[in-house]
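Q: Given only this backbone (189 positions), what sequence would you predict?
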């Protein structure tokens, strides 16, 4: 038997063409089953056919979709565009894929946040956190507060009046330099 759609040779029992997926009309099956009631009257139900079309082979079930307006068993459309789209290179299975690069940080903004936070509010580390150095930013905050508490206690011995401004000055120099360095690293990539 030949497929009317593509002309390929197919077996007579096939419900569809194995080459193009075109569905054929169901083969003539046995006569419908009619039950006869003992009284001799015709049955109340309509006769039903027992034939069902076989499902298409596995290769046609994957990667195919039906065209709009088609019903199941009327053939299959062209193959669906495989994912990923053409031109996109996907890494082979089992290889590590690098996470996307961090967005570059503005060096001036990070330095400004350190200077304003430390100069006005005595809170260092904000510029480092924005630059991506979260651990160093938190360490700067906590260590500055601990050192200033110790310096406040040292003011009772008069030496705290010298160490307190020196600690602040050291952090005003060190924190912006660390923030600038971290921001430049994210820019370099």
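A: Predicted residues:
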């Amino acid at each position: 038997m030949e497929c009317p759609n593509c002309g390929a040779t197919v077996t007579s029992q096939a419900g569809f063409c194995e080459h193009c997926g075109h569905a054929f009309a169901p083969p003539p099956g046995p006569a419908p089953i009619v039950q006869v009631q003992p009284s001799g009257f015709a049955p109340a139900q309509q006769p039903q056919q027992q034939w069902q079309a076989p499902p298409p082979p596995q290769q046609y079930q994957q990667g195919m979709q039906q065209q709009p307006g088609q019903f199941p068993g009327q053939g299959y459309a062209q193959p669906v565009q495989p994912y990923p789209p053409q031109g996109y290179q996907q890494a082979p299975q089992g290889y590590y894929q690098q996470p996307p690069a961090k967005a570059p940080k503005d060096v001036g903004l990070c330095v400004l946040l350190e200077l304003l936070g430390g100069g006005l509010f005595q809170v260092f580390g904000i510029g480092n956190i924005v630059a991506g150095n979260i651990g160093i930013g938190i360490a700067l905050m906590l260590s500055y507060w601990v050192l200033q508490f110790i310096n406040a206690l040292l003011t009772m011995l008069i030496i705290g009046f010298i160490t307190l401004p020196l600690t602040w000055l050291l952090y005003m120099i060190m924190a912006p330099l660390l923030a600038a360095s971290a921001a430049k690293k994210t820019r370099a990539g």
